[in-house]
Amino acid sequence: MEQNIIFRNNVKIIGNGAKSILFAPGFGCDQTVWNQVAKAFEDDYRIILFDYVGTGNSDLQAYDVNRYSTLEGYAQDVLDVCSALELENAIFIGHSVAGMIGTLASLRQPEYFSNLIMLAPSPRYLNDPPEYFGGFEREHLIGLLEMMEKNYIGWATMFADTLLNNSNHPEVKSDLEDRFCSTDPIIARQFAQATFFSDNRQDLMKVSVPSLIMQCSEDIIAPETVGQYLQQHLPNSTYIKMKAIGHCPHMSDPEETIGLIRQYLKSGMSVGGPL
Q1: For strand 46-49 and strand 113-119, is the pairing parallel, antiparallel, or unpaired?
Q2: Which residues have a Cβ under 8 Å from the Cβ of 52 and sit 6 or more positions away?
Q3: Is the dihedral of CA 113, 115, 117, 123 positive or negative?
Q4: What is the CATH number of the domain that holds 239?
Q5: Of 12, 50, 92, 163, which has the fewest Cβ atoms less than 10 A away?
Q6: What is the pTM of this model?
Q7: Alpha-carbon distance 275 to 270, whole Å?
Q8: pLDDT in tens, 36-55
Q9: 89 falls within a domain
């Protein structure tokens, strides 16, 4: 079973530290998006990288339409990796929707995690006025899914531009486009539907693991109101507003991302003292 999960999720382990960091990619991306950030922690931590089934170099034959119709299926991938590696009190670092995937995993088996670090997370992408502003109207998201079906390459170009929201990093925009285009369009569309129509607001108050919310500047996907909502509803959470513009700070601004994660870890924000 352990070797099956290692192969299925293309698990890679680097670094020599006693404490583990599990890096989880966001929608449409694989583990290599963490290359610049993960490398900075190799000397002090055991680094675990993986791909969700259906992305990157995972075992595509293991993809199950029913399992991955909701974020619970992706959370199960995280739990399977934790179980296979017998993790305990690991630091979970997730980008975008991976923040909520990690949240769901922590609700089911909190013993696997000492901290949840979330880059540009959102518990709900749809607006739910007047109490909640997630950034999108339902019609907009339905239009995105329809575009994925009719013109996937055009969608990839448009969505990469929306994610980055910063013309100073054309190489990152191109990288994102390539990542989206390398994913099976059918799998990508189902992941998008599971992501953009999820609602994890009711899960937040149940979280027992200390968390860090890293809010980006001028983020179209997860606007500042979303980060503030998370801070108000996520127990034992720390909120940091980043200078990085857009939705992918680990790719566009890895230095700031690394520095803020280090600062949080050194502050000993976990239960039981310093990390």
Answers
A1: unpaired
A2: 9, 25, 58, 68, 74, 77, 191
A3: positive
A4: 3.40.50.1820
A5: 12
A6: 0.94
A7: 7
A8: 999 999 999 999 999 999 99
A9: yes
